[in-house]
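Good morning,

Attaching, inline, the C-alpha cells for the sequence recovery test we're adding to the shared suite. The designed sequence is right after.
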C-alpha cells in the first residue's frame, strides 16, 4: 500500500522534512505512546510523532529509559500508527537492541517497521554505532540520529546536566553529526547542549536538526507530551515550556466525579435508562 493512499491528507515524509529545512520552516515534533493521544496530536497538525523510549518513564514508571523492551516499543508504536493520518512516525530502538551488533540493529529496525507500520527509527550515539546505522539504512529504513545528552547512556554520564560544554566533547559532537549525515541519516536530534553549538551543527548539516534543550537556532523542536501538558509535575527542566496544566485539570475532574458518586448526584435521571 502506498504511503500516499489517502487522497485528502498529504502525509509528512522524509522528503517533506528536508524541504521544510530548505525553506526555513520549523519542524514540530512531540512524543506519543497510545492511540487516543496520538490521534489528537496528529489531528492538531504535528509534523513528527516520536514513539520515544521515554515511554519507559512516563508510561511504565521506570527511573530511566533502559528497561523498556523492543516488544513493548512495538506495542506502543503500533497503537500510535493506527491513529495517524498525516504525521511522520519515528520509533526509538530501545537500549540493547542495536549497540555493538549491526545484525541485531537491522533485525530490530525491521521488526519495528514490519510489526508497527512506523515510518522511521531513531538511535542514540555517533561513531560508536556507525555500523549499526549503515546496516539499518542498507535495508531502506530511514534513520534519525540523536546526539548530546543521550538518555540510554545516563549511567555513563552520571548526570542529566548539559552536554558538550567542553571543547573536546563539542568537537566530537560536530564530527559525529557530520558522520551520521554522511551515513545517510535523514534527521538528527540534539539534546541538552549549548545553543551556540546546536546552531553550528544545524548550519553545518543539510539534514534537519531537531532540538530539545538546544536553543532556537535548530530546524525544529521536540518535547515529551506528558511534560509539556503538565501531567508530569516532578520534571521541570529549564528548556521545558508547559502548555497546559492537565495534572490540575484531571485531578479536579477526578475529585468532582468521586464527590458526585459519593453524594449520589451521579448518575441522575437523565443519565439513566
Amino acid at each position: 500500500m502506498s504511503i500516499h493512499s489517502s487522497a485528502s491528507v498529504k502525509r509528512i515524509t522524509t522528503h517533506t522534512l528536508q524541504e521544510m529545512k530548505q525553506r526555513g520552516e520549523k519542524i514540530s515534533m512531540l512524543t506519543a505512546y497510545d492511540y487516543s493521544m496520538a490521534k489528537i496530536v496528529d489531528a492538531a497538525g504535528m509534523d513528527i510523532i516520536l514513539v520515544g523510549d521515554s515511554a519507559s518513564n512516563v508510561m511504565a514508571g521506570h527511573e530511566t529509559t533502559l528497561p523498556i523492551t523492543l516488544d513493548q516499543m512495538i506495542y506502543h508504536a503500533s497503537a500510535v500508527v493506527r491513529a495517524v493520518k498525516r504525521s511522520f512516525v519515528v520509533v526509538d530502538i530501545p537500549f540493547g537492541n542495536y549497540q555493538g551488533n549491526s545484525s541485531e540493529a537491522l533485525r530490530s529496525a525491521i521488526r519495528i517497521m514490519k510489526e508497527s507500520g512506523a515510518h522511521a527509527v531513531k538511535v542514540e550515539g555517533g561513531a560508536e554505532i556507525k555500523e549499526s546505522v549503515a546496516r539499518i539504512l542498507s535495508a531502506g529504513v530511514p534513520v534519525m540520529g540523536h546526539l548530546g545528552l543521550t538518555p540510554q547512556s545516563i549511567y555513563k554520564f552520571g548526570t542529566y546536566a548539559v552536554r558538550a560544554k567542553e571543547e573536546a566533547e563539542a568537537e566530537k559532537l560536530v564530527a559525529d553529526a557530520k558522520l551520521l549525515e554522511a551515513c545517510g541519516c535523514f534527521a538528527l536530534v540534539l539534546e541538552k547542549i549549548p545553543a551556540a553549538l546546536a546552531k553550528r551543527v544545524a548550519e553545518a548539516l543539510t539534514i534537519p536538526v531537531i532540538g530539545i534543550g538546544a536553543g532556537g537556532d535548530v530546524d525544529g523542536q521536540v518535547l515529551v507530551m506528558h511534560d509539556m501538558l503538565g501531567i508530569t509535575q516532578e520534571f521541570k527542566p529549564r528548556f521545558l515550556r508547559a502548555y497546559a496544566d492537565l495534572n490540575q485539570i484531571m485531578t479536579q475532574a477526578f475529585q468532582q466525579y468521586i464527590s458526585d458518586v459519593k453524594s449520589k448526584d451521579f448518575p441522575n435521571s437523565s443519565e439513566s435508562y
